[in-house]
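Supplementary Methods S3. Complex input for the adenosine-5'-diphosphate-bound model.
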Amino acid sequence: MKQLLANLIGTAKVCAYFYHIASKEKPRYLGLVLANILLLSILPILNLLIPKRIIEELTGGQDITLLCLLVGLLVGGIFVLKSLISILQELRETWEDALARRIDLSMSEKAMRLKFECTESEAALSARQKAETGMSWYSGGIKGMSESLVRIGTSFCVIFGVIWIISRISPILLLLSVLAVIVNALCTSKINLAAQEVFEKTPAINKFYSYIYTKINGREYAKELRLYHASPLIEQKAMENAKALNKMDNECARKQFSWGILGSITSAVGYGISYGWLGVLALKGAITVAEFVTCIAAMETLTNGCLIPLITNAQQLMMKANFMSAYIGYMFFPDEAASGKDVPSEESFDGITLEHVSFRYPGTEQWVLRDVNLQIRKGESISLVGLNGSGKSTLIKLICRLYDVTEGAIKLCGKNIQEYSYEEYVKLLSVVFQDFKLFGYTIEENVRLGGVQNETKKVGAQTADLGKVYEMSGIADWVESLEKKGQTLLGKEYDESGVEPSGGQAQKLAIARAIYRNSPVVILDEPTAALDPVAEYEIYNRFHDLIGNKTAIYVSHRLSSCKFCDKIVVLDDHTIKEIGTHDELLARGGLYANLFQTQAKWYVAG
Ligand code: ADP
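Predicted complex, serialized as structure tokens:
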């Protein structure tokens, strides 16, 4: 009982949440739903009362004019009501389709503004999967919820009318109907429960399914699939997965079948008793033929047309609401660093300071950075070097506020960076990550991305015009050679006319995007890791020339790439081991000198 109450409250909250969204988008939505319920409720009552009068007239007065009038009223009434109902339903469905699209979009929007650490967390990924599943396959989304609510509302209204009709003829029949319905409700609830159990288990399996059917089949894996002949293994895994799903479906169907049969038997017994009882009353002359027929029809309406649909829909609504609550759960995952309202001023920007910064990834015990202290002055170029896994990228993520420090603080103009509005703070940064991504938009859109707010500013000594940026980043000739120039679409994801940039062109495009953004701090986090050391050195050097006197942070695991920097920061064993210029560090003969000489040997040997 406690559980049922909790479910009812939960369902009411979910319905209120979605009706709130719906009313915000379509203010007259609730009115439309209520009108729909009202018309749907009048129809069965009309179908009971007018035929009763017709039978009475047929077995009594037999007034032809009155009979024609009654038939006309019945046929005309049904026609008008059904026409109005279908118009309202059509309109309701159109609005609900638009709402469903809005809700789908809101999930994508949420995914894009989600706090970065959530994008890497299993809980958030699984919540997204559950939300998508909950809003589509199982619940039918807002359309499914609304359909259930309309049916529940209609059932309620009709029940009152029908109870009034039956109780005037044979109150005992009401009792019988209720008994039959209780057994039926039990069966229906068991059937629904079986479906619910399947839903609880499906997100993990669906995630694997979508990995196989969307990701692995996509472009990203095309080369490995062919060269390593990986398809048999994948097919085998897909089969195992399909078998697991089939097994679950079969179990569910078995349970649903048994409870379904019990429900049908109860229903048949209920009908048998009712017919018997009314037959006896009619034979004794206690009720008329018209009352016999009306009572049977009313009972049918009450049980199959009202009470059973009411219980089924109430249960389904609870189930749908439970599925849909996954959407609400997902929408309440934290958004990207929401803290802080201050706006950093580019003019007063004087560098970034790390004070006793320690960090471990959420949910892990291992310190990735420990007591890191570093001052990056305005206009300075800093190189972060260290072996793979020494925490270089993590440090960049902290500076970019993709994660918050666990201990200590990162400061800008004397203030903790968390005090600044996230949106305003990141405007100060142009970053090219190792795993940078280009979007399936035009070259121009890719380069202008995120730089629009800076379009009136200067790039170095030049104005921020795209042609200049293409030239500076070394893609001008390539762009010029393309038929649609900067309007050429990148990639063939959704349009065959798109071009696939080579690895080098893609890197230059990513660098062009960073140059165009024209922020006071630029960061290159090894976008060149796939290149050979000489090419990396050249790109870093060229980039350094391009950005003029901006503050720059270069990341590399190759110590030779950033010799030109004002300050080289060597990360090792979770902290900063050495800081100095290339020459200073070589002269010191410490870790940097050691690593540098070791790496230099490989290059010479190569
Ligand atoms: P680098 O850039 O120097 O190669 P990273 O900063 O990428 O090093 O990684 C430092 C350490 O943090 C590594 O041990 C890595 O496994 C761990 N790490 C990186 N990303 C995550 C993450 N999202 N969750 C947990 N640990 C991570």
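Residues 120, 361, 364, 368, 386, 388-394 surround adenosine-5'-diphosphate (CB under 6 Å). The first helix runs from residue 2 to 25.
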